[in-house]
């Protein structure tokens, strides 16, 4: 009995109007706002850094969920805490010391997330589950919005089992739409990031799971 949360990714929003775009999706009922930070190094695209995230903060009344697609992570953790991130997620592929990184994130008071690229198995986070508040399962190779969904439902099921009764969210990121959202929700995900489905002519309700209204698989 999980409530599915929708986290619109502002990567697909109008970059000249972030404040209005955030207010619009929150008015539609967005649970969290997902912020994609890219460094042109860990992923082949560049977005924004701490000063931009700080500027988004006053517009986000819900939860600011910051997804770092950068390496290294540790030198920037405090800057994202100061910018007002509620959840800070680092990739397990971003360096050899994810455990230390998650500890450092929690030490600032933020919640700590760990993200897995499609090619990375669930086992990579097995020994991090007591250090983490969220596991982000990438269902595209990170870097761009609007890509085709890669089926990771077996990974999601495995993670849900590994997590057991720990209070750890499973977030899905990439290619969430009305066809794929019910699949990942049924597999055990409880937070769905949606970029193009929400901002390119749709709304928070477009993936079809808003308010826990999960369609039959
Ligand atoms: C991809 C980002 C995603 C992306 C999702 O690297 O992490 O958050 O914006 O966009 P859609 O929903 O269009 O796949
Ligand atoms: Zn993301």
TrEMBL record:
It comes from the Bacteria. Substrate binds at residues 9, 67, 143-146, 173-175, 195-196. Its cofactor is Mn(2+); Fe(2+); Co(2+); Zn(2+). Keywords: Carbohydrate metabolism, Cobalt, Isomerase, Manganese, Metal-binding, Zinc. The active site is at residues 36, 173. The keyword Metal-binding applies. It catalyses: D-ribulose 5-phosphate = D-xylulose 5-phosphate. Catalyzes the reversible epimerization of D-ribulose 5-phosphate to D-xylulose 5-phosphate. HAMAP family: RPE (MF_02227). This is Ribulose-phosphate 3-epimerase.
């Amino acid at each position: 009995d999980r409530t599915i949360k929708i986290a619109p990714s502002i990567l697909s929003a109008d970059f000249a109007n972030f404040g209005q775009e955030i207010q619009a999706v929150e008015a539609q009922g967005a649970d969290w706002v997902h912020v994609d930070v890219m460094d042109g190094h860990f992923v082949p695209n560049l977005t924004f850094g701490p000063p931009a995230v700080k500027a988004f903060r006053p517009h986000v009344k819900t939860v600011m969920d910051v997804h770092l697609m950068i390496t290294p992570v540790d030198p920037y953790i405090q800057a994202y805490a100061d910018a007002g991130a509620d959840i800070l997620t680092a990739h397990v592929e971003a360096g050899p010391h994810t455990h230390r990184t998650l500890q450092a994130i929690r030490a600032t008071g933020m919640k700590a997330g760990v993200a897995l690229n499609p090619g990375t198995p669930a086992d990579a986070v097995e020994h991090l589950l007591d250090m983490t508040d969220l596991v982000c399962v990438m269902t595209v190779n990170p870097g761009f919005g609007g890509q085709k969904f890669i089926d990771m439902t077996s990974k999601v099921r495995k993670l849900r089992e590994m997590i057991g009764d720990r209070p750890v969210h499973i977030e899905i990121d990439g290619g969430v739409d009305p066809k794929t959202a019910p699949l990942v929700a049924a597999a055990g995900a409880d937070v769905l990031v949606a970029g193009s489905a929400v901002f390119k002519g749709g709304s928070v309700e477009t993936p079809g799971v808003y308010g826990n209204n999960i369609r039959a698989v």
